[in-house]
Amino acid sequence: MSAHEGDVHTLAPEMPAMFDGMKLAAVATVLYIIVRCLNLKSPTAPPEITYQDTPLNHFLLKSCSLLTKEYIPPLLWGKSGHLQTALYGKLGRVSSPHPHGHRKYLPMEDGATATFDLFEPLADHQTGDDVTMVICPGIGNHSEKHYIRTFVDYSQKQGYRCAVLNHLGALPNIELTSPRVFTYGCTWEFGAMVGYIKKAYPQTHLVVVGFSLGGNIVCKFLGENCNNQERVLCCVSVCQGYSALRAQETFLQWDQCRRFYNFLMADNMKRIILSHRGILFGMSSSKMKDADMSRLYTATSLMQIDDNIMRKFHGYSSIKEYYEKESCVHYLHNVDVPLLLVNSADDPLVHQSLLTIPHTLAEKKPNVMFALTLHGGHLGFFEGAVLFPEPLTWMDKVIVQYATTICHWERHKTPCQSEADCSEEKA
């Protein structure tokens, strides 16, 4: 055997060990990335609740157990706000139900036709009362979305009638009757639906529910006119951003991939607008021009679409004026019915800086409670053991539990408690 051959045999046993070390390092790196991306080391905890010391809030925290219990997302992926958001947005719910409802058409003064779907209760309400949930979905959403169908089905089984607004232009099979689609804070269609319910069911009381953009609309609607709060028992807003003006800069940042989400939402808005291009750009009464169509094709953000298209439906001179007038932040202080504001700390769409708005409001107003969860993403809030989520989310259950607790409070509160509530509101 030559000296060279001897060297080869001497080195050979070390080579597998080196490759094994590289494999271990690669596996360790992948595991580290998975742990970081899935946020597996993050703890679980009950929601952080901001509220004032009032009899109603004590009753709520005692009776609405989900607000004080630990929220536990699915173990493997539920602590990632991105996956919670993606699963809600793209994959829908597990075994999504198909509640049976009736579509209503409401002619508006400007020639538009608002539509909503009405679902009757499937059981008696716990209090025996007639209660209707008036629901406003998220951006470009409607009653046929998985998360809305799941929530409506659950609410019906708990004794609630449900009325779900279909955002103007969002339903692919419903043609527009005027050159206008829904906007960030226009309350006309939601107000028309509420008016219909009040007239058709004179004995019913209302629970107002808004998801994401819908949360902005319902809070703005209640705060615009005190008459809008008549027969309203309470309001729940989930995952809204409160101020579009303050949010616009955060939507251009890559932090939490917010710029990417902005692009995806802009692309969805493009599809909605272009699906109605004939009416929006072709009618003689349209405020849109060919140049606006060209800008729409090249837009890569919601802000560009809002500036070139959306603000013009209502005649705003600038995007700043549009965001200022259409945001509920300027109307929230006028809402006097019990108001639950829910957000998630890992919501990739709503920047942390915006959460000072509901936090400060809950500190100042006795009727407001702000619940902030550690996890949940944007309208996710899935629950489950390890991998597969449950059909109902924490969000579904907490809205119904809060509403039912308010119904019990209204039914059994004493005159003294009513006077105390009035005194606190005036103070």
From TrEMBL:
Location relative to the cell: Cell membrane
GO cellular component: sperm flagellum; sperm plasma membrane
Topology in membrane: Single-pass type II membrane protein
Similarity comment: family membership: Belongs to the AB hydrolase superfamily. AB hydrolase 4 family.
Pfam families linked to this entry: Abhydrolase_1
Superkingdom field: Eukaryota
Name the UniProt record assigns to this protein: Monoacylglycerol lipase ABHD2
Any single GO BP term: medium-chain fatty acid biosynthetic process
Source organism of the structure: Scleropages formosus (Asian bonytongue)
Taxonomic classification: Eukaryota, Metazoa, Chordata, Craniata, Vertebrata
